[in-house]
Amino acid sequence: MASLTDDSRVTRTSSHTYTADFPLHWCIGSVPHGGFVTTCFLRVASLHFNTTLSRQNQPDTTTLHLTFIRRTAVGPAVFTVTDTKLGRGTSTIHITLRQHDSDLVVGYLTHTNLSTASGVGFSTSWALSPPTPRVSLSALAAGEDEHWAQRKTMPFSSFRRASNHLAFHFPRKGQADPSIADQWIRFRNPAQRFTNTTLGYVVDMFPQVTEVMRTWPHDQYAIATEEAQKDQSAEMVGKERKKAPSAQYWYPTVLLNLDVKKRLPDEGLEWLFVRTRPKVVKDGRFDLEVIVMDEAGEVVALSHHVCMILSAGRNLAGRGEKKGTASKI
Known about the structure:
- A hairpin with a 5-residue loop joins strand 16 (about 285-295) and strand 17 (about 300-310).
- The longest helix has 17 residues, at about 35-50.
- The strands form 3 sheets. Strands 1, 2, 5, 6, 7, 8, 9, 10, 11, 13, 14, 15, 16 and 17 form a 14-stranded antiparallel sheet that branches.
- By secondary structure, the chain is of the alpha+beta class.
- About 15% of the residues lie in helices and about 35% in strands.
């Protein structure tokens, strides 16, 4: 079974150069999933601060800002690091991802030591609004939670291969609003756990709320929808089964920001809660706010995206073969 830890492994080839390999099963269509790529950036930074910059004693990413310039591709990738600012409390590095002689993704990451961090802090009155249904994760794991249930298969999973590595659990009664996607998640690989470097994948893996908004009140991600589809499938025994519809749209990330609030245990967590919500969807472009919380209700990370809505055909279109002609988003 696929492992995010194994598949996102990076190799140090010099003091400021690292390599990775992007597999097909972590793709959306033909393009490596942006969250998988983000996790690779986090792992490059982690390795860099544990080797070249080990004297800084700053192992933890606190902020990440990535700009996706062009489509990435399946296969080898090279990451080049520039030490932009080295400080006593925090340090910032610049990372460039290159494939086929082109710069495809660039980013800045800031590191510190979350175990020794100290300073002013206050409690706030912030809470999820609307609130999310109560959950018992032990009951949810057994398929017996009153308010939540696992979606066994995700829509368009053959196109969105990267989604096949998570088990998604949604509210039994549906989402509170068509623009909200609440989910409890865990990896399908029972040996895989959520650590800080996996947060890149976590904050970019969710139901596509723009699809729900487009078809509302029908929600193709809802638990009730999957149950209805099972009933329809049972009625078609002995008849020709309908072919599953293909994906119409691709939602490439243009910009992704990540703000990490706490260090997860070294052994990782089995469960995380994620809420995703856009504020404006207009002219084929939309924002996303992503909130990640643990079982105790503490905020693990916040993320903000700028995304586009494109035809799925744009994802599968051929790439320029000459230097500097790789297709732009």
